[in-house]
Amino acid sequence: MNESVQESRSIDHFFSAPSGRTDLWRDLHAAARSWASGTKNRRAVEAALTELGVSEEFHAFPGADLLAALRGLLQNDDANGFLSLAKRISIAIITGNYKHDAKEWQAADLSLAEPVDIVPASAADGVSRPYFEMLTVTPAPLGRWPHIAAEFRRLRRSEDAFVYEAVLVGSLEDAICAAVVNPDIAAVAIYEGFTLRSRHDAPVLRSVLAAQQPLLDQVDEADLALRLAAGLKAIRPELDIYLLSDRRVEKLAGDPRAAMVRRVMYQIEEPLELHLSVLEGIQARFETPFFDNLKRYAQRPIATFHALPIARGKSVFRSPWIRDMGQFYGINLFLAESSATTGGLDSLLEPTGNIKRAQEMAARAFGADHVFFVTNGTSTSNKMVLQALIAPGDIVILDRNCHKSHHYGLVLSGAQPFYVEAFPMVEFSMYGAVPLRTIKKALLDLKAEGRLDRVKMVDLTNCTFDGHIYNTRRVMEECLAIKPDLIFLWDEAWFGFARWSPFLRPRTGMGAAADIEAWAKTPEALAQHERQVAELGASPSLEKLLDTRLVPDPRAIRLRVYQTNSTHKSMSAIRQGSMVLVRDVEFHRVEAQFHEAVFTHASTSPNQQLIASLDVARRQMELEGYGLVMNAIEVALDIRREVNSHPVIAKYFSIVGADGMVPSEYRRSGFVDFLAPGTRWDDQLRSMREDEFCLDPTRMTLVCGTAGFDGTSFKGLLASQYNIQVNKTSRNSVLLQSNINNTRSDVALLISVLLKISESIETRLKQGGDSERKAFNAKVQSLMKDVPDLPNFSHFHETFRQDAGDTTPEGDIRSAFFGAYNEEQCEYVPIDSAECDRRLKDGPDMVSANFVIPYPPGFPIMVPGQVVTHETITFMRKLDVKEIHGYEKARGLKLLKVDRVGGKKSGGQETARKKTRAT
Ligand SMILES: *Cc1c(COP(=O)(O)O)cnc(C)c1O
């Protein structure tokens, strides 16, 4: 294939490395069939074989022997022999059978081949052992590679818990490529003495390496091994790395950079030592302390005298009335139920045993200092974090459009919310994310008011429901330049999986925190900061500060980052399984508060199965997360491409590209969309690195208004008639999401359904004539064009702003919230009434008594204490959704009579004032 063709399909080509590979093998199989049946000649097969290219070297299977056998059959003009072997290999790759069937590894002529003992003995229960590949970077000459791989194979023992094959490469470049394209690689053995440059010059190699340019620029041959280790860890932090050297191993081991190497060894040491270490490394990730113990616990005969009749299942299986529940869930669910914290089950509220260890392992996996398992969803995680860190009167800057758990968390903690607005996407009736400029302005305004010391936290959703990803690093750096001890809460409910993609990871809270920490340690950091201080001068204007990319003082910053993940939303955890990830240099100071917050919100009867699933979800991601996430991204790119390019579907439906989701001012890299013509995947990388917002490819806004459906009815149609469930809706779109469980068959199903629907519209329009077309166009027009303006947050009523800055908009949401508990202080005004219009015009102000949250769009258009404006009422009147939380149509808006509430000051504020004075 020539270079330009290779380049032109780069983005999806890259993300689809695994399935792209199966496609190439399918093509080879097809070409072989044509050759054998005489419809095509040998040349087609040769071409297909060349297409497979150098990247086959980065996989253990089929390996050099089988490939040589294929080439041999080709040279001998043995079309049938070739077909049979090509077929076998391609099926083995597609099914993954080679991972547990030794026969697949044998060459064409079984009688001649030395049998390859891939699975010397299957485990006692007949289940084959998990298979992985070990990347082996070696200076040995090419001719020795098969022997080296065979040597590792000979080390296998029947008692090994896992089985692996070695993948051999000879250079840093090849090693990086192999780690990128082969998700089965789980361990790396680096033998010193290998070269920097690949012996290949293949475009695929170059395009993978382009992203690693910084790594390749600092050429210092002496350090190659450690540099490779660092490079691999930057791409896939979960990999175990073993460094084999024939010199100064003690010295190497003492190098601080060797911290990322699991073990440094002498090259001449027993290979068995390496073999055992590699298996032990996998075991360390495979282990699930809580789940393992729960399984043991379930096997023990235990008589229970605690309050959980369902434990052991006797109340279920003995009952003639509810036995079906037992049959449905199976006995293990009941054997694994317990209210005990004995028997090694540990206590989620005060973990000291295997829950503690499970959390520590999760911290390692997710790149945090501490992880807390939460069994009541991220709704609870967010409230815990807010309660732990925020005291009454503290100011929190947050997206008004964030999940309601944040708003309620602020009510509970008595904080003063400073709402900031995301950029609106009026055409879809949804919001994007909050521009950094807005956040900086909030901080600088508070500073001007002399209230910066009151600001404790910036609280943002990353990524947003619709896929806007913040530049987390930049947000934190610039905010820390204004207030160096600010706390960040990144609600990454949807985004937990991002840790396992090298492209998305830097855009997570934890990923950015690690990068900032590393940056702050470099001498360049302080120089950058001092340069900027000099440039800005003594008193830079507000505009100047807003326009400058601020560099924090690396000596002053106190990095305090919290991230919450709904593990159940993107990984294999049971519903409500959530984690709080912590990277906070002051954590020791707030640990006691944090525990209080856990005690406040966590159930004293946490569900064992949930905890186990969090443990297991971590194991899965550490062992196969990289490949799974790559697959989820690939599925998303497939859907994007198919919908937008299909001749019939694309007439009625479209998936909004990055250019439609992120306004160009926040997309300075010029990136248009993943699959836009001429886009290469390094453009995508640049966008992810530089742009203020980028789009998560796995979150797809499918516009259905152009097919005459509003979001809610389209969602209903897909669910009721086609068994397809989608995520949230907007006025004229639905949100599709791919995740780690999707396959290409799901893509095929979705596309076939969209095609059916599109075709039925076509038929209807054809048969219905002019009137039908007119009605259709009117519907589309109404859905796509007559969209109500989104109402911004207006302001808190003065009653709730007595403790606020003169020019800044924060307010006391808690007093307003509890003010509504006294019915005498409340009144109701229907939004369609004349009174409503009169009040808007002549007053007195209407002040919302509670949160009003319509679904969709799902953000509070009113919060307690907020003055109701024309904008909000107009939006509500136009809103054609049925579900509005906090609004009873029959009674009208619930409002506060502020003259009755006004007299009293809340206790919370008094405390806050005293607190401020005291400190
Ligand atoms: C779903 C969600 C939550 C709440 O998480 P649960 O696990 O459902 O409790 C919080 N924040 C955001 C952004 C969410 O999408």
From TrEMBL:
InterPro entries: LL-DAP_aminotransferase, Orn/Lys/Arg_deCO2ase_major_dom, PyrdxlP-dep_Trfase, PyrdxlP-dep_Trfase_major
A Pfam family per the record: OKR_DC_1
UniProt keyword annotations, A-Z: Aminotransferase, Transferase
Taxonomic superkingdom: Bacteria
Required cofactor names: pyridoxal 5'-phosphate
SUPFAM superfamilies to which the protein is assigned, alphabetical: PLP-dependent transferases (SSF53383)
Residue ranges constituting the Orn/Lys/Arg decarboxylases family 1 pyridoxal-P attachment site domain according to the UniProt record: 288-513, 561-738
Entry protein name: Decarboxylase
Organism: Bosea rubneri
Phylogenetic placement of the source organism: Bacteria, Pseudomonadati, Pseudomonadota, Alphaproteobacteria, Hyphomicrobiales
